[in-house]
Design brief:
The chain is α/β, with parallel strands linked by helices and 640 residues long. The chain is built from 28 helices and 18 strands. It has three domains: 334 residues, 2-enoyl-CoA Hydratase, Chain A, domain 1 (Alpha-Beta Complex), CATH 3.90.226.10; 160 residues, NAD(P)-binding Rossmann-like Domain (Rossmann fold, 3-Layer(aba) Sandwich), CATH 3.40.50.720; 124 residues, N-(1-d-carboxylethyl)-l-norvaline Dehydrogenase, domain 2, CATH 1.10.1040.10. The strands form three sheets. Strands 10, 11, 12, 13, 14, 15, 16, 17 and 18 form a nine-stranded mixed beta sheet that branches. Strand 14, helix 20 and strand 15 form a beta-alpha-beta unit. Helix 5 runs antiparallel to helix 6. The longest helix is centred in the C-terminal third of the chain and has 30 residues. One of its GO terms (biological process) is L-valine catabolic process.
Length: 640
C-alpha cells in the first residue's frame, strides 16, 4: 500500500494520507509528492480546489517521521534534516499562498508537520475527535512548519501558552486559537468530500457547520494573558512560581517537561513576529534558523532519544534549571546568511547596500546583511570593516550605484556631512536609511535634502545594543514616508526583530529619545532601589522576585537587571562590560533635553537623569562602563 494517495477527480485535486498505523506521519517522500501535485494543479483549469484528508480514525497527521532525522543526526549528518525542513517549509508556504481553495479535514491528532499540511489552507474542518497541538518543545524543537504564524496571530498570549506547553486543542479551542475554521460532524465528511469532488463550492462547508460547543482556552485566557506576558521564558517562570493556583502549578509541570532552550526560543520568535511585518515567509525564516541548528547545537537529538528511541521520558536538556541565557537564544536565531531558507520572497538578494559607519553597532549590522546574501560595500573613517563586507576608499565611492545607503554615525553634525557627500552621487529613487541616534532637526534636514534630490529617506534609530546588533534582534523606530519605510522593511527584517513606522521624517528620532529618556530614568530608579534594599538588609534576589512580578516591573529590572547574579544574564554579570555604554545614555539624554527645550516641554525627571549620567561619565568612573553600572555608584554612597 502506498503511503499517500494522490489523484484528480472531476473538479478536485485529492490528497489522502495513507499511513494510519503510523498516525499518518509524513515522510520526506510524501512531502515532495504533495508539492509536485500542488504545482501541477495550480495551472490546471479543471482543478477548482484541493481536498486533503487521511485514512484511519486516530489522526489526520501526527507530525513528521523523525526516525531518519535521528539516525542521520547521530551519524553527524545534519544536511539531511536541513534539506528536509527546507523542502517541507517550502511546501507549507505553497499551501498558505495557493491560488485555489485548499480544504482539509482534520480528524484525530493533527500535530507538528500535520499542522503545516492541514492548517494553512482556506477551509480547515474539525470534528468530534480532532486534537490539534504544536508539541515540538517536547523534543527540543520550536513550533515550526509555519505554526509560529498561527501562534503569533492567536488571541492575547495564547500563542506563547500553546507553543511552550504543547496543549492539545479540541475543536472549539482550535477554532478559537485560529488553527481551524469550521466544526462539522464527522459523519457528514464523506458526503461533503464527494460533493466537492463533483464540483460543489466550498461554501457547502459553512452550510454544514455547527457550533463546536464550549472550549477551555477562552476561559483560561485571562490567566494565560496575565502569566505569559513576560518578555522571556524566565519572566514567565518567575511569575508562575509566585502564584499559588491550580493553573500556575499545572502549567509549570507542563513547562518543566520541555526543552528550556526551545521554549525560550519559541517565545522570542513569537515576539519578533507580532506586528505589521508578520508574514509566512518571515515565520518560516525564523523557524528554519532554529531547526537548521537544532541537531548540532540544540536539544533535538536528545529529545528524540528520550521520547522515541529509548522512551525513558527523561531527557537531559540544556539549561535544565530553566534559566536560559539570552545569548543562547540569539545564537539559535541568528540569520543563516547563504544558508537562509529560500521561498518565493527574494526581494533583497540582488540589492547593493552601502554601509557607512562600521563601529561597534554598525559592523555587526552590516555583517548580518552580508550573511543574508546582500552585496554590502562598507566605509568607516577609522578603516574598520566587517565580515562579508567589501571595503571602499570613501563614503562617496561606496554610495555610487548602491540601491540603499545605510549609515550608523555618532551625531547629527557628522550625519549632515555624510549626507552632503553621498546624496549627490546616489542613483535616483535610492534609499538613504540612517540608523544613527541624532537630534530631530538633523534628521529632518537630511530628509529634506534627500527629497530635493529625488531620493527616499528613513530615520530609524535602534534599540537593543551591541548584543542586539550581533544577534539580529534590534528594534527600529522609523520615520519617513510609507514608500520609504516599505523599501527599508526587508533590511529591518534581517537586522532586527521589530520595526515600527512612527510617522514622518524625524519621528523615529523622537521615539528613540523619548524611549531612552524613560530608560535612563528607570535604570537610575532601579539602581537606587537595589542600593536602598542593601542598606535595609533585603536580599537582592528576594527583591527581584517581588518587584519583577509586581507594580515595580520594568525592562530595567526584568530584562536588564543591574544587580549581578540576579535575574536574566546582563552586563552586570560581566563586570558591567557595556551592552549599552553609559556615555551613549548620556548622549541620548542630552538629545532628549535638547528636544524638550526646542518645543518647550517640561521634563524634570529627564533633566535629573541627564545630570546624574553626566556626573557618572565625566566626573566619576562611568566612562566605558555599561549604563547599569550606576548600581555600585549608589551602593557606595549615602545621602548628600
Amino acid at each position: 500500500m502506498p503511503d499517500i494517495v494522490i489523484r484528480q477527480t472531476a473538479h478536485a485535486g485529492r490528497i489522502t494520507l495513507a499511513r494510519p498505523d503510523a498516525l499518518n506521519a509524513m515522510t520526506y517522500d510524501m512531502c515532495l509528492q504533495i508539492e509536485a501535485a500542488l504545482d501541477s494543479w495550480a495551472k490546471d483549469d479543471d482543478v477548482q480546489h484541493v481536498v486533503l484528508d487521511a485514512q484511519g480514525d486516530k489522526a489526520f497527521c501526527a507530525g513528521g517521521d523523525i526516525a531518519q532525522l535521528y539516525d542521520t543526526g547521530m551519524a553527524g549528518d545534519f544536511a539531511f534534516g536541513q534539506q528536509f525542513w527546507a523542502d517541507e517549509y517550502r511546501l507549507n508556504a505553497k499551501i498558505f499562498n495557493y491560488p485555489k481553495p485548499v480544504i482539509s479535514f482534520l480528524q484525530g491528532f493533527t500535530m507538528g508537520g500535520g499542522v503545516g499540511l492541514g492548517c494553512h489552507g482556506t477551509h480547515r474542518v474539525v470534528g468530534e475527535t480532532s486534537r490539534i497541538a504544536m508539541p515540538e518543545c517536547g523534543i527540543g524543537l520550536i513550533p515550526d512548519v509555519g505554526g509560529t504564524l498561527i501562534l503569533a496571530l492567536a488571541p492575547g498570549r495564547i500563542g506563547e501558552y500553546l507553543g511552550t506547553t504543547g496543549y492539545r486543542m479540541a475543536a472549539a479551542d482550535a477554532i478559537f486559537a485560529g488553527f481551524a475554521d469550521l466544526f462539522v460532524p464527522q459523519d457528514q465528511w464523506f458526503d461533503l468530500i464527494q460533493q466537492l469532488e463533483d464540483g460543489a463550492s466550498p461554501d457547502i462547508l459553512a452550510q454544514a457547520a455547527q457550533a463546536p460547543g464550549d472550549g477551555l482556552l477562552s476561559a483560561l485566557q485571562p490567566d494565560i494573558d496575565k502569566y505569559f506576558a513576560g518578555e522571556r521564558l524566565g519572566d514567565i517562570i518567575t511569575t508562575l512560581q509566585q502564584v499559588d493556583s491550580d493553573f500556575a502549578k499545572d502549567t509549570l509541570k507542563l513547562l518543566q517537561r520541555n526543552s528550556p532552550l526551545a521554549m525560550a526560543s519559541t517565545i522570542e520568535v513569537l515576539h519578533r513576529l507580532r506586528g505589521p511585518t508578520l508574514s509566512m515567509a518571515k515565520a518560516l525564516d525564523h523557524e528554519y534558523r532554529f531547526t537548521y541548528r537544532a541537531m548540532e547545537h540544540g536539544d533535538l537529538l536528545e529529545g528524540i532519544r528520550a521520547a522515541i528511541i529509548d522512551k525513558d521520558r527523561r531527557p537531559k536538556w540544556q539549561y535544565a534549571d530553566l534559566r536560559v541565557p539570552a545569548i543562547a537564544v540569539s545564537k539559535m536565531l541568528m540569520p543563516l546568511g547563504k544558508n537562509a531558507l529560500t521561498l518565493e520572497d527574494v526581494r533583497m538578494t540582488k540589492t547593493t547596500v552601502c554601509f557607512i559607519g562600521l563601529g561597534n553597532m554598525g559592523a555587526p549590522m552590516a555583517a548580518n546583511l552580508a550573511k543574508a546574501g546582500l552585496h554590502v560595500i562598507g566605509y568607516d573613517t577609522a578603516g574598520t570593516t566587517a565580515e562579508g563586507v567589501t571595503p571602499a576608499q570613501s563614503a562617496t565611492d561606496a554610495a555610487q550605484g548602491a540601491d540603499i545607503v545605510l549609515s550608523m554615525l555618532p551625531n547629527g553634525a557628522i550625519l549632515r556631512d555624510v549626507a552632503a557627500a553621498v546624496l549627490p552621487v546616489m542613483k535616483p529613487g535610492a534609499l538613504f536609511l540612517d540608523c544613527s541616534t541624532v537630534d530631530v532637526d538633523s534628521a529632518r534636514a537630511v530628509a529634506r535634502d534627500a527629497q530635493d534630490a529625488g531620493l527616499l529617506f528613513v530615520d530609524a534609530p535602534v534599540s537593543g545594543g551591541i548584543g542586539g546588533a550581533a544577534a539580529g534582534t534590534l528594534t527600529f523606530m522609523a520615520g519617513g514616508s510609507a514608500a520609504a519605510f516599505e523599501t527599508a522593511q526587508p533590511l529591518f527584517d534581517i537586522m532586527g526583530q521589530k520595526a515600527v513606522h512612527c510617522g514622518d521624517a524625524g519621528a523615529g528620532q523622537a521615539a528613540k529619545i523619548c524611549n531612552n529618556m524613560i530608560l535612563g530614568a528607570t535604570m537610575i530608579a532601579t539602581c537606587e532601589a537595589f542600593a536602598l534594599a542593601d542598606k535595609l538588609g533585603l536580599d537582592r534576589q528576594k527583591m527581584f522576585d517581588v518587584v519583577s512580578t509586581s507594580s515595580g516591573y520594568s525592562w530595567s529590572m526584568n530584562a536588564y537587571c543591574p544587580a549581578p547574579n540576579v535575574g536574566p544574564q546582563s552586563p552586570a554579570d560581566n563586570d558591567y562590560t557595556p551592552g549599552f555604554a553609559a556615555e551613549l545614555m548620556l548622549k541620548d539624554l542630552g538629545l532628549s533635553q535638547q528636544a524638550a527645550e526646542a518645543v518647550n516641554a517640561d521634563t524634570p525627571m529627564g533633566a535629573l537623569a541627564l545630570a546624574q549620567y553626566r556626573a557618572f561619565v565625566e566626573d566619576e568612573d562611568g566612562l566605558g562602563k555599561d549604563f547599569s553600572a550606576m548600581l555600585p555608584r549608589f551602593t557606595s554612597r549615602g545621602r548628600i
